[in-house]
Amino acid sequence: MNIAILDDSKEDLRQVKSVISSYYESQNTSADIHLYSSAEAFFTKYIPGFYDLIIMDIYMGSMTGMDAARKLREARDTAALIFISSSDSFAVESYDVQASYYLLKPFDPEKLCRILSTIQFRQSQNSRYIELISDRTPVKIPVRSILYVDTYRNAVQVHTTDAGIIRSYITFQKFEELLEGMKCFLSCYRGCIVNMDHIEESTDEGFVMDNQELVTVRKRGSNAIKKAYLEYLFSSDSDN
């Protein structure tokens, strides 16, 4: 795990690092932790895709944590983001940069550990593959590459980030069984499921994915669907 912590408070940097180090030691997982006192200092050494997890304060001088997060997402960086702030003023806005969690200072170390556990679960989940037959050929599809899945003329269509649309003549019910236990998937309407890890924005019409495609949500029950998405993003217990 490559982890960056951004905070202009030396004491907060020390505390967050201590909690994170203890957590990953307990999991027998190697964690390379990098500390930065500002977003500007972070970007002087930033390499897109290097970090698995980035934890940052909101208020850090001229470049805020939200500014830094937007810059990361503009670079298509998919690192998990956790905000730790003295104010909840940006909690709603953090949805726009796909933040995993938003904690208020002084934070609860046990809650941060639960969050780390959830993120670790999601990352291990996203290393999984599903196998389909497409054009009579077995195909392995990484779960993390799946944007959404729908149906067209009796075929299941898997929309992916890197291989376009993969079609397979399997029933939608059978396909859903392949995803059993993977809580990143959410049903938008009958015959359509979306990978919540690729949602960029929730709108009145549905979900805008990070490739800018719109996946619509059925009108009946749309509030419950969007609530499930928000709970997935921000509930530290949703995957435990």
From TrEMBL:
The modification 4-aspartylphosphate is found at residue 57. Residues 2-120 form the Response regulatory domain. Pfam families: LytTR (PF04397), Response_reg (PF00072). Signal peptide: none annotated. The keyword Phosphoprotein applies. Keywords: Phosphoprotein. May play the central regulatory role in sporulation. It may be an element of the effector pathway responsible for the activation of sporulation genes in response to nutritional stress. Spo0A may act in concert with spo0H (a sigma factor) to control the expression of some genes that are critical to the sporulation process. This is Stage 0 sporulation protein A homolog. It comes from Blautia difficilis.
